[in-house]
Amino acid sequence: MTSGSPDQTLKSCIRERACLLGALRGYLSSHQCTEVTTPVLRPFGVTDPFIASISAYNEQNRLGFLQTSPEYAMKQLLCLGSGDIWQLGPVFRSGETGRRHRSEFTMLEWYRCGWTLSQLMDEMIELTTVAATAMGPVADDALGQLTSSSSSSPTKRTYRSLFEDRFGINPHAIETARLASLCTKKLGSLGQHIDPSTARSEYHDALFSQLIEPTLESPTFVTEFPREQAALARVAERRGDTVALRFELYWRGVELANGYSELGDQAELNARFVANNATRKAMGLPEMPLDDEFLALIDVLPDCVGVALGVDRLHMVLTGRRSLAGTEPGK
Amino acid sequence: MATYSTNEFRSGLKVILEGDPCSILENEFVKPGKGQAFNRVRLRNLLSGRVWERTFKSGESIEGADVIDLDMEYLYTDGEYWHFMKMDDSYEQLPAGKNAVADALQWLKEQDVYTVTLWNGDPISVTPPNFVELEVVETDPGLKGDTAQGGTKPATLSTGAVVKVPLFINQGEVIRVDTRTGEYQNRVK
């Protein structure tokens, strides 16, 4: 049999993936973190305007939604005193299909109580290094990028510093009108199609995803996001700006992970969900029921940080692929 | 004309962008985890031939273009227009201007069939077949015994195109040429 035969390609893909999953599981289990499984199907979807939950039905009765991430259910466990936990499993997002997107993908999510975001970022690199090592020669290039480039690898960059370097503006302080004209200047007609109800965040997303993300080739943590993009993260003052205490990991121009300093404030989260639904309404999207189970418990969330890592994309990046194709045995 | 949403964009779909008909080459879905989704699209402007890159918001719609490709027979030129005839029962004739004929001009032979792209019924481009067979009307005399050397010389074809041919090719012979590269393929008996 030649090495390029379809059969052999499938086998090596399955083997790569098994090594990766084994390494991720092994690392977390041996670092004082406990595996959990929370329901994939829950009565609530998410209110985020740009994440579409897939609803699930049982005959005529609506059961609920396939989870877009396990974060709501896992935070309930944290509120109930679980301590550090991790989960590896499928998540679902309607309408996301492309070179680096699938409607169903595999997510690794874990939480650390009493840790800082900085500690969590360090752990991510350790975990990624362990995974790359476990995958063998196919991940040699990636491993080299992770370990040898310099003492400052991977890079940590604030969202603001990336915008300052690329566009010469502070993304947190700039008036929305100026952000709009920058967007039109840099992205042409796209800038004219932004929805006024979510304008500020959309301009940030457009500029970041089109002009900054593709340039983040070496492993880079982006920190301190605009406050409008706080989602379930805490907000704080940094260098005179109000920013979301979040990070994302980018590598080879791909977003791999999204980490938060977790917010345990029922009133504030409730207000954000209501605001999300208002945005949904303005955009003509269905409003989503608020996650009462989550909101009822969240005030007692322990001080913690958490991160979600896209496992298929990690497989893709570690093996030097430019697309998810080939990382999905059986699809 | 119908409009198409970004999730219907496929390679080959014809749309109107900034007033010009374009053919979609590539459509990439780009979405930050929690953020707005975009489609990064590469299109070929069918009037200028240039490739454009544009970013759309996912879900945005643009107008489709009434563009069709038709096999038509080339008839003649009056110096300003090149006249092509439909090959259905209508025998309808359509004039193509210089911009539409463009680089195909050097391969146009009367009674041969070409792909004519019509926008709202008017020719906007002419594509020759990948291979054409044309007569050599002018070239230096052939040199016997040089066939193994692989040397070439210029030859002018009946349509005015000049291509490099092997030294053994003589005036009056018919050769096969790849119109995409302008390269000589072989001699036709």
UniProtKB/TrEMBL annotation, chain A:
Residues 20-329 form the Aminoacyl-transfer RNA synthetases class-II family profile domain. GO terms for biological process: lysyl-tRNA aminoacylation. Pfam families: tRNA-synt_2. GO terms for cellular component: cytosol. InterPro entries: Aa-tRNA-synt_II, aa-tRNA-synth_II, aa-tRNA-synth_II/BPL/LPL, EpmA, Lys-tRNA-synth_II_C. It comes from the Bacteria. GO terms for molecular function: ATP binding; lysine-tRNA ligase activity; tRNA binding. Keywords: ATP-binding, Ligase, Nucleotide-binding. This is EF-P lysine aminoacylase GenX.
TrEMBL record, chain B:
Residues 132-187 form the Elongation factor P C-terminal domain. Its main location: cytoplasm. SUPFAM superfamilies: Nucleic acid-binding proteins (SSF50249), Translation proteins SH3-like domain (SSF50104). The keyword Cytoplasm applies. Signal peptide: none annotated. One of its GO terms (molecular function) is translation elongation factor activity. One of its GO terms (biological process) is peptide biosynthetic process. PROSITE patterns: EFP. The modification N6-(3,6-diaminohexanoyl)-5-hydroxylysine is found at residue 34. GO terms for cellular component: cytosol. InterPro entries: Elong-fact-P_C (IPR015365), NA-bd_OB-fold (IPR012340), Rib_uL2_dom2 (IPR014722), Transl_elong_fac_P/YeiP (IPR020599), Transl_elong_KOW-like (IPR013185), Transl_elong_P/YeiP_cen (IPR001059), Transl_elong_P/YeiP_CS (IPR013852), Transl_elongation_fac_P (IPR011768). It is found in: Cytoplasm. Pathway: Protein biosynthesis; polypeptide chain elongation. Residues 69-124 form the Translation elongation factor P/YeiP central domain. Keywords: Cytoplasm, Elongation factor, Hydroxylation, Protein biosynthesis. May be beta-lysylated on the epsilon-amino group of Lys-34 by the combined action of EpmA and EpmB, and then hydroxylated on the C5 position of the same residue by EpmC (if this protein is present). Lysylation is critical for the stimulatory effect of EF-P on peptide-bond formation. The lysylation moiety may extend toward the peptidyltransferase center and stabilize the terminal 3-CCA end of the tRNA. Hydroxylation of the C5 position on Lys-34 may allow additional potential stabilizing hydrogen-bond interactions with the P-tRNA. Involved in peptide bond synthesis. Alleviates ribosome stalling that occurs when 3 or more consecutive Pro residues or the sequence PPG is present in a protein, possibly by augmenting the peptidyl transferase activity of the ribosome. Modification of Lys-34 is required for alleviation. NCBIfam families: efp, PRK00529.1. Belongs to the elongation factor P family. This is Elongation factor P. It comes from OM182 bacterium MED-G24. The lineage of its organism: Bacteria, Pseudomonadati, Pseudomonadota, Gammaproteobacteria, OMG group. The gene is efp.
